[in-house]
């Protein structure tokens, strides 16, 4: 394997790992606020890493510019959307999970 192919595999593998972490966060975490935090951070990093691998596969082409713009768009909008969702939940008085009352 060439160094470029190794980097592509590493980026896509890292993106897959962080996508898996986001899925585990949705399943395992107790409330909306912690789930939104886990998914917005992990999913954003996973998507950016995967798109980096895709850009390397395409090489120097117009598709790389489109992939970079898509990555930038997702890098900005994913955390912003998660913040808007959690802010709306907070405004509707959805209480966060706490450890009070647990023995």
UniProtKB/TrEMBL annotation:
Transmembrane segments: 6-27, 48-76
Alphabetical list of NCBIfam families matching this protein: CPA3_mnhG_phaG, PRK12674.1-2
Protein name: Na+/H+ antiporter subunit G
Residues forming coiled coils: none
The keyword Membrane appears for this protein: yes
Pfam families, alphabetized: PhaG_MnhG_YufB
Keyword ATP-binding among record annotations: no
Keywords carried by this UniProt record: Membrane, Transmembrane, Transmembrane helix
Gene Ontology molecular-function annotations: sodium:proton antiporter activity
Classification via InterPro entries: PhaG_MnhG_YufB
């Amino acid at each position: 394997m060439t160094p470029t192919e190794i980097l592509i595999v590493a980026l896509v593998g890292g993106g897959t790992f962080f996508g898996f972490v986001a899925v585990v966060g949705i399943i395992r975490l107790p409330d909306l606020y912690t789930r939104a935090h886990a998914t917005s951070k992990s999913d954003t990093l996973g998507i950016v890493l995967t798109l980096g691998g895709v850009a390397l596969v395409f090489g120097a082409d117009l598709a790389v510019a489109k992939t970079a713009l898509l990555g930038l768009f997702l890098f900005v909008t994913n955390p912003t959307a998660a913040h808007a969702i959690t802010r709306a939940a907070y405004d509707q008085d959805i209480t966060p999970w706490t450890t009070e009352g647990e023995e």
